[in-house]
Design a protein that fits this description.
With 176 residues, this protein is an alpha+beta fold. Helix content is 24%, strand content 38%. It has a single domain, classed as 2-Layer Sandwich (Alpha-D-Glucose-1,6-Bisphosphate, Chain A, domain 4), CATH 3.30.530. The chain is globular, with a radius of gyration of 16 Å.
Length: 176
């Protein structure tokens, strides 16, 4: 991996089969819903999600987000690069993007069957923002944002499927 790429991942057990879990998280609007609602981590702003005719559910499909956070217009375009139901989905940003805290990234999830349940892992590999004026935000908040984003993506299906709401997390973070 490129030494300028940072990595964060976390895993949890979800009390459901890999097939049912994949079907739930394969809906990108639902899976990325933390970006579509106002929160302190989003600077009280939000992003709008648009998908192409592939709905983000096949290799080459595009997912675009735009919005305004802290008065700044943000934009990104993601493309699905790996799609192997019910076990793996990976996407990455492409083209010109305008983000504050992280730069281009690759994100995804993998699902492994474990005793009738699913070991669900979400990860992000990201660069710092490319603009000198915002790079300091990446140094300061990139790791915090990556952890928040991964945890948001883990919490939706965990809450939906685990009635007792108990989570076992195994998080790792690195700069390479």
């Amino acid at each position: 991996m490129n030494p300028k790429i940072r990595h964060y991942e976390e895993s949890t057990i979800v009390d459901i089969s890999p097939m049912r879990l994949f079907a739930y998280v394969d809906d990108h609007a639902r899976f990325a819903s933390h970006m579509n609602s106002s929160s302190w981590m989003m600077g009280r702003g939000h992003m709008n999600t648009q998908v192409d005719t592939g709905r983000g559910q096949r290799v080459g499909s595009h997912i675009q987000m735009d919005g305004k956070i802290l008065g700044i217009n943000l934009y990104l375009d993601e493309v699905v690069t790996q799609y192997e139901p019910p076990y793996l989905k990976i996407w990455k940003t492409v083209g010109d993007i305008n983000l504050l805290i992280i730069g281009h990234y690759q994100m995804g999830f993998k699902i492994e069957e474990e005793r009738g349940k699913s070991l669900f892992t979400v990860f992000i590999n990201y660069k710092l923002p490319q603009y000198i004026g915002t790079r300091w935000l990446g140094y300061l908040l990139g790791g915090v944002y990556a952890k928040w984003c991964v945890r948001q993506m883990l919490s939706g299906p965990t809450k939906y499927f685990n009635h007792n709401n108990e989570r076992q997390n195994y998080g790792t973070q690195s700069s390479r």
